[in-house]
Amino acid sequence: MARHPLIRNRTLRGVTAVTAALAVGLPLLSVTGAATANGAAADQPVAADETVVDASARFRPRTVNPLIAGRTGYLHLTEEVDRQQWTDYATGRTRFPARGLSTAHPVHPGLSHRVDKGAEDEPDTVVITDVDTGQETAVPVPEGQHFLGAVVADGVLTAERAEDGSVTALNLVRLVDGETVTRPLTGLPAGWRLMRAAAQDAKGAVVRFRPAVDSATDAYFHLDYGTGEVQRLFPELGGTLPSNVVLSAGHIVGYSPQWENAVLVPRTAPGTAVRLVPLPAPVDGTDRRSAQAAPVGNWLLVVHNEQYPDKALGQPLWAVPLDGGTPRRLLTHAARRLAQAPDGSVVAIGGTRADNWAVRRVSAGADAPGLRTIHGVEPVRGPVDGLALAAGRLTVATFKPGTGGRALYDYNLAPDGRPVSGPVPSWPLRFDYNACQSGEACVELHAMGNGRTAFTSGSAVRVPSAPDTHADIRAGGGQQRLVDTAGRYTLANGTDPARQYVGDVEQPGDSHVVHTRSVTAGALWGNKLWKPVSGAGNVNSYDLKTKKTSATINVGSGCTPRELQAVGRWLYWNCGPTGKAGVWDRKAGRGISVPSGEALLGDGFLVRHDRTAGKLLLTDFHKGAGSAARTTQIADLPANRLKSQRRVGWTVDRFGGNVAYVDTAQRVRIKQVTVPRSPVTVLESRTPGKNLQYGAKRRWESTLQLSRPATAWRLTLRDGFGRTVRTVNGSKSQGASITPTWDGRDANGKPAVSGPHNWTISVRGAGDTTYRDVKKGSLWLTGGTGAHRDTNRDGTGELYTINKAGTLTAHAFRGGVHLKTYAKGWHTGYTYVPFGDLTGNGCNDLLVRNTKGTLYRYNGPCNGVPKPTASRVSLGTGWNAYDMLTYPGDLTGDGRPDLIARKKSTGDVYRFNGTSTGKLATGVKIASNWKYAQIIGAGDLNGDGHGDLLARTKGGTLYRYDGLGNGKLKSRATVFTNWGGSYNTIVVAGDMSGDGIPDLVARDTKGRVFLNRGKPNGSFTGRTQVADGFGGYVSLA
């Protein structure tokens, strides 16, 4: 057997204050396939290349009306099913009765009946059906008797009447061994005319009679089949009779829907005085009493009709004790229809919300009614009132579960259209949207490709960014019509005044409008606005960032285009809804003819809705102009009452490439499009800053709007030598927008070296197997690990000077600016060696040798030159034996700075390794008899990660000794010859030019300072003067 339409096998929680923990695994409720004929929309087959996404549940639960409750199941009608169904209590299995069963009032628990009219001289026959077994019993109505509408399993209630219509006899006619046996029911006073049966069960019936005298009032009489007695009910009520009477094994209860109290008499003594039973009032804004009641043992079930069914699920189901006491709430919300079974139990329907709705069975219990779930009721799919799809982000406008309003819901899709997350509410629509068509509850949605969706709201284009945050692009006073969106930009036509507006959601301010022009056709792609210009078929683009206009092209339309759409190299145009249409291939510079009609452009294809045929058609032209375009059908989509279903009932992902449409069951189908995609590119980008302060709250970031979604991205940071500092891998995106970030750390998680870094962003597009570089740039890190001779961690090396007044100054030359930091009070006869970070705090230290030959370490303050009063640590005595002290960087490869010293007496060169304690190890001789005029520690000159040395001969030859990383040096390489004869000081002061490579600085005898920029291969460029007047300094370091 097939599934019950829209009722799933799932677990529901019944809500009741009486029973605990009603959560149960529900059985599968099934029907035959015919159940959906002309009722619930039959599900269309799902093709192999499409994925189905169910819409949200409608606020109001699916209507299930219990008609007759039997011993083993119940007969009911279900919304979207056009026939009666029978569902078994135990299994939840559903079937159709062989024929429709009568449910005329009053319903007998477990029984149905119909009247087959006899021929002219034949009596009528009442056919009684046992709803559990389907067994039929035909009871002929004796001649001269009239059927009263009440039955038992094998008999009928009849009356005999006088000529004036008054009842002269009441009979219970039963079928015994194929013969009718009549039993009189006595006690009805004379003068009563038959009106109708009001209630019935196997023990008896309640019939309402009308007096023969018109001025008198009606009366109810109880007919007891067991005793044969007829007794009047509720005589003390006079003419104020209840409109409804219900029966239980021990009670007769009368009530009217609007009454505050029900009336109760015992069934064994129906003629006694009534007792009042207070009925609970409606709640939650419903102030109109409209009760339905059914007895269960010594309890009366009561539920009111909901006054506002579009705003509330239903009134509570109450259990009222007939012996007095406080009512119990069995269900938070319930449907108004109740059906009593032969055993005295009652079928009720309710829950807490539409997706928790279930059919329940209420039975008498020792202390309170028991509640058992029979099966769940699947909610009705809410209508899809708007549809957007871009870069794998599906947005649906539909009902918000648990409320009567609408909302936007987002799903993230895999490249093949499968939902990987969602639905996530992105905006509560309420009524703040402009309908796509007058009188309709539809909203035209535009996907922007960056995870956002735009729609019009009054005089604004609204772009939600979170469920409680949005940007409104306002222009003019009249309603706007949204034309197009792309990334951060929106294009809309205003009505008061009639102008076309481009909005930028990233633009500060209230209106966000960045461009205004006359109303024409228009299309956005990246930061380009495509538009018609003077002359038939002429179009050009306007760059919203550079404010420049492109050259004009003629698309061959022969008209001024009425509509434009742009995707990558493709530009779609048409001359009106039924006019000529085409696609301009900007790469080939030629046009492609396509069919006219309501269409949306994708990357290399066009989707068109043929409303007459009810089809979605795809035209593939990805091979470009000159190759034949091919049109195929991709889906059935019947036209509906809307003039246009575009972006409401179907749409195209122009970033990701798939197609979405809404089928007749209000399910969204994602259709894969296999047309090859263009390579992923950057449409628009923004990098808020080129500087990053290490440790700051805000990281460096760059946001790229891509032409296609990326399944993964990679940010690679490199230093001036091209060495990789850090690779940041990620996959997080917003649609086709990615925002790689960097916190300033290197691959080991430590602060990267301050200074310039070149970055490259690479992406792996959806469906691709390799990464593609899409954006490059540079940034400057400050506050990281100090670069070579960088005392304040700003990434720029410094030249130290000491003047005659004892002021020690660090000079930086970058970008034509001379920057200085200094500290006063230093000794002019000391030797100063700008050094690396010996203490491991990320800041470079300063070594100072005093006149007595003691070498001290002054901890770098991280923000300039240390003061002479700062804390210091002795690194030993006897250092006057060395005539040259210089800092080459790390020679040993241990990550610590090393010191090079030349012994004055021998010319031997020693290496003193930095240690983990912040001191220097014992010297190790690495060269002998160096007679160079000057030895210069240079840092890493060639990008191999090891410190290097420069040495200049008295004859003017400059050599470079590359460090090997093991404490030793390579053989020397000539850098310059006949060089530096006028220089009295040569220093490699770190990177002073801003390219991340150490530079050579020299002072000549005239006090001029020259800079030779370092090259990645270890050599230097020609010199450039950067300063003058340095001749007065005592020394430079």
From TrEMBL:
Family annotation (SUPFAM superfamilies): Integrin alpha N-terminal domain, Nitrous oxide reductase, N-terminal domain
Residues of the FlgD/Vpr Ig-like domain: 702-763
Pfam families recorded: FG-GAP_3, FlgD_ig
InterPro entries: FG-GAP (IPR013517), FlgD/Vpr_Ig-like (IPR025965), Integrin_alpha_N (IPR028994), N2O_reductase_N (IPR011045)
TM stretches of this protein: none
Keyword Nuclease belongs to the record: no
Disordered: annotated span: 99-118, 729-756
Keyword Signal in annotation: yes
Protein name: VCBS repeat-containing protein
Annotated source species: Streptomyces alkaliterrae
The organism's taxonomic lineage, starting at the top: Bacteria, Bacillati, Actinomycetota, Actinomycetes, Kitasatosporales
